[in-house]
Automatic annotation (TrEMBL):
The keyword Nucleotide-binding applies. The lineage of its organism: Bacteria, Bacillati, Bacillota, Clostridia, Peptostreptococcales. Keywords: Aromatic hydrocarbons catabolism, ATP-binding, DNA-binding, Nucleotide-binding, Transcription, Transcription regulation. This is HTH-type transcriptional regulatory protein TyrR. CDD domains: AAA, PAS. It comes from Anaerovorax odorimutans. PROSITE patterns: PAC (PS50113), PAS (PS50112), SIGMA54_INTERACT_1 (PS00675), SIGMA54_INTERACT_2 (PS00676), SIGMA54_INTERACT_3 (PS00688), SIGMA54_INTERACT_4 (PS50045).
Length: 460
């Protein structure tokens, strides 16, 4: 290769190097730079050629010269250096003559500010992850704290010990018990003590949603699946709850056709949205609850036996309040504090009232007890609720008056008596809460349930 070709080749290599390049002679005089160096330093080759390398130091382009160090040591130098305010990696190589004396030094300069940014981001991420882990741990503790169940009875202690053992598994759970006994609270308790506690807990009342909407609420639909569907489609409860827990309350009221779809989710961990041709994979734990006799529903062909067996992998039964009266005092105190906080009050409840509450009949269980305690605290004119306040709070809708209940039963069937009491409760409730939404929230049921019953009894 001729000298001119060699020179052209070297020029091409230097100019197209991904690194900034600067060449100095044995005296530290700049002989050549490339376009990348121009971009990095802001000085062109014409401006630097023939000047001493210290020019870059004087103009604060570099903080020190590795080229001068190579001239001094006659050895390659690799170092990090601040180059025009940014960190750079410099590699300087000596070109020596036959006597080993340095003739030229070629320096390659690579911007490593991105490296430092990545390190900084990594450190920041580590810190945030550590902070997140601490917050997550705290949140998990708070979740467990907020989902503690108030009790004193041996029955509930045994139930919760079993629930904690069940929680660490990933099996489906069926919770049975009377209305208002605390099945929903137990489901949250299981979720809080499970490996899914950091994920979502979604609850749906199978009896509160109109039958024609249950499927779309649970499983969602594709865009254009039916007339009136959202153009973007819709995610269902199962998709939202992926990796978390779904609580299906009143499972006995799930429409029969949908029970097959739920069975498929339990078996195959996938489902089809309405209008979909491809299944959606999902990883959820299902906790179901019912106050109905599912065995009777199976005999009546309104509930599938295969679904029952799939749901009933692990089962828990919440005892009614009448079977654990020793829980009433601690529940009363718990609700007293809660209601005081809600209404910014500071009322107490006398021991005589608590004794009376323990002797009363609670067909509505804990939900009824809480509502009744709220009522007596709101009706009480003094700072301490006394026995005399009970009758006034009960009024005409006392579900605890066993004599009144007995009189009703003498003149009607159980169903008729229950409906009459329910109607009285709704009429009295509207006097205080004014709207169906507020009354539903107070009674712990869905607003559509209250609206339906108000129409049923001709109250609205």
């Amino acid at each position: 290769m001729e000298a001119n070709d060699t020179k052209r080749l070297l020029e091409f290599i230097v100019e197209n190097s991904p690194s900034a390049v600067i060449v100095v002679d044995k005296n530290g005089i700049i002989q050549k730079t490339n376009q990348r160096h121009h971009e990095e330093s802001g000085f062109s080759e014409e401006e630097l050629k023939g000047k001493h390398i210290n020019t870059l130091i004087e103009n604060r382009i570099i903080s020190g010269s590795c080229s001068l160090r190579v001239i001094e040591t006659k050895r390659p130098v690799l170092m990090e250096q601040i180059y025009k305010g940014s960190p750079h990696m410099l590699k300087a190589l000596p070109l020596t003559d036959e006597n080993g004396e340095v003739e030229y030094v070629i320096s390659y300069i690579l911007d490593i500010s991105e490296k430092y940014n990545l390190i900084s981001e990594l450190e920041k991420t580590k810190f945030e992850n550590k902070k997140y882990s601490i917050e997550l741990l705290q949140a998990r503790k708070e979740l467990r704290k907020n989902n503690q169940i108030v009790f004193r009875s041996t029955r509930m202690r045994d139930l919760l010990e079993r629930a904690e053992k069940i929680a660490v598994t990933d099996s489906t759970v069926l919770i049975t018990g009377e209305s208002g006994s605390g099945k929903g609270a137990l489901a949250k308790y299981i979720h809080a003590y499970s490996s899914r506690s950091e994920e979502s807990f979604l609850s749906i009342n199978c009896g509160a949603i109109p039958e024609n909407l249950v499927e779309s609420e649970l499983f969602g639909y594709e865009k254009g699946a039916f007339s009136g569907a959202q153009t973007s489609g819709k995610q269902g409860i199962f998709e939202y709850a992926d990796k978390g827990t779904i609580f299906l309350d009143e499972i006995g009221d799930m429409p029969y056709p949908l029970q097959v779809k739920l069975l498929n989710v339990l078996q195959d961990k996938e489902f089809y949205k309405i209008g979909a041709t491809v299944p959606t994979k999902v990883n959820v734990r299902i906790i179901a609850a019912t106050n109905a006799d599912l065995a009777q529903k199976i005999r009546e062909n309104t509930f599938r036996s295969d679904l029952f067996y799939r749901l009933n992998v692990l089962s828990l039964h919440v005892p009614p309040l009448r079977q654990r009266p020793e829980d009433i005092p601690v529940l009363t105190e718990h609700f007293r504090k809660k209601i005081n906080d809600r209404y910014n009050m500071n009322k107490s409840i006398s021991p005589a009232v608590i004794k009376t509450l323990c002797e009363m009949h609670w067909p509505g269980n804990i939900r009824q007890l809480e509502n009744f305690i709220e009522r007596i605290m709101l009706f009480s004119r003094s700072d301490t609720v006394e026995v005399s306040d009970l009758d006034e709070a009960n009024g005409s809708i006392s579900l605890c008056d066993s004599e009144a209940l007995a009189d009703s039963l003498k003149q009607s069937t159980l169903k008729e008596a229950a409906q009459q009491r329910e109607k009285e409760l709704l009429i009295e409730g509207l006097k205080t809460f004014k709207t169906a939404t507020a009354l539903a929230k107070h009674l712990g049921v869905h607003q559509s349930t209250i609206s339906r019953k108000l129409k049923k009894y001709g109250i609205w």
